[in-house]
Amino acid sequence: MPRFDRVDLDTPLKGLLGGTAAQLLEKELNIRTVGELLRHYPRRYVDRGRLTDIAGFEIGEHVTVVAQVVRAEERRMKTRAGSLLQVVVRDEKGATLNCTFFHPRKVAPFVRPGVRAMFSGKVGVFRNQLQLTHPTFELIDEEDEIRPFVSVYPATAGITSQQIWRCVRQVLDMIDLDDVADPLPEELRRREGLAGLGRALRRIHLPDTEADQHAARARLVWDEAMGVQLALALRREATAQRPAPACPPRPDGIAAAFDAALPFELTEGQIQVGQEIAADLAREHPMNRLVQGDVGAGKTIVALRAMLQVVDAGKQAVLLAPTEVLAAQHARSLRTMLGPLGQAGELGAAENATKIALLTGSLGAKAKREALLDAQSGAAGIVVGTHALIEDRVKFADLGLVVVDEQHRFGVEQRDALRSRGELAPHMLVMTATPIPRTVAMTVYGDLAVSALHGLPGGRSPISTTVVPLAEKPAWFDRVWARVREEVEAGHQAYVVCPRVGEFAAEEDEPDEPLEDDETEERRRPPLAVLDVGPKLAEGPLQGLRLGILHGKLPPDEKDAVMRAFERGELDVLVATTVIEVGVDVPNATAMVILDADRFGLSQLHQLRGRVGRGSAPGVCLLITDMPAGTTARERLDAVASTTDGFELARLDLELRREGDVLGSVQSGRRSGLRLLSLLHHEEIIVKAQQYAMDLVAQDPGLRQHPRLRALVAETIGDEERAAYLDKV
Ligand code: ADP
Ligand code: MG
Question: Model-level pTM?
Answer without folding.
Answer: 0.65
